[in-house]
Amino acid sequence: MTQPMRRLLVGRTCAALATALIPTTLTLALLRGHASGSTGSAGDLGLVLACELLPMLVLLPVAGVLADRFPPQRVVLAADLLRGAAQIAIGAELLCGLIRVPDLAVLAAVTGAAIAFGTPAVRTLVAATVDADQRLRLNSRLDVATGLAQTAGPATAGGMMLMLGPGWSSLLTGALFIGSATTLGGLHTRRATRPTDGGHARFRAQLREGWTETRRHRWFLTNVLGHGVWHLAAGFLLTLGPLIAVRSMGGDGAWVLVAQLGTVGMLVGAFAAGRMPMRRPLVGVAVGAAVYALPMAAFGLGMALPWAASAYFLAMFGLGVLSPLWETAIQRRIPQEVLGRVGSFDTLISFAARPLGLAVAVPVATLLGTSTPLLAGAVLVAAANLAVLLLPEAWEHPEPVTARSDARREPVAAAGQGHSEAGSRTADGR
User: Where are the transmembrane segments (predicted)?
Assistant: First the structure.
């Protein structure tokens, strides 16, 4: 493994662990404050978490433009330093015995904004520092590290809460973000032609150009829509699945078993993805997402625990395989100078669809019961993701596209002269 790959792995692991610490730390801090009477209600938790989510959704398209306009390592450096400062401020307040919801809401919003700006830049940073033939292996390792961090985060936050208090957990979170910033901020990237700063008109032109480039790739849009469907369906399953498990599969322990098997499946899938001889990665992406229909059908039909748990293991294995394949496909097929903008639309769908599913699952189940939405979701997940296989692009194995500099592409329009249609066709045929 090269030094840039090691630094990417270490930096992203630090950031993933820090991100996983935040929800548990805030939850336990606010619930402790509610129990002691220092906060208004348990609903304060929803307000604080919403203040983190909303800036992420609003700012992602803007963040995509900045990820393409500025060197990605500098964007990641600024985003992680900002996240670290916000978490250290939360930790300092908690250590002083203060649990002021308005302060936590503002700092959560700052954290959400930093996540929005850093997320598209990370994808661009990988493409700018790692050779094309090494990206799948790196993305696989990044996903394994992220999965382990997501598993360890809640336990770490809970342990620090019991032993030291939530303030120290937030300080650890801030330190991890700063560690990520210093690790990734000094990476040397390949030089890429980046647009000059032409003011607001140029910014709007770049935003439109990003959407134009996004619509150009049928394989990308079809996959993103399919992923949005399974993120929405996952919100239903993660809400209704525990209810079904507790009522008809043996109690609380049944869902714990299902969730643990899912975690194992995801880690095994992510580990295996980097070692599979996958010449048609978009086929693997489509099948990996469609497999999520299995546990939805199993829970919707009220199958026994062994069948439901096995189905969830297979689904999470598929998602573990999907993630590094998808990241590598995007980094391979999308020109590097528009990768941030195009990728931001993918992230936006993912961030928005899952919370929507979580929010509407119970009201829908109240009207229709638990089986109907899960079975309908299973059909939609399978259909939306397997539809990608109808595209010729899914069966191609194109050469990597790293720059839109060939003669077939039109030059980008100057500021104040509108936006370019970004050329005719990319090398992958779209």
Answer: 45-67, 104-126, 168-187, 224-247, 253-274, 281-301, 307-326
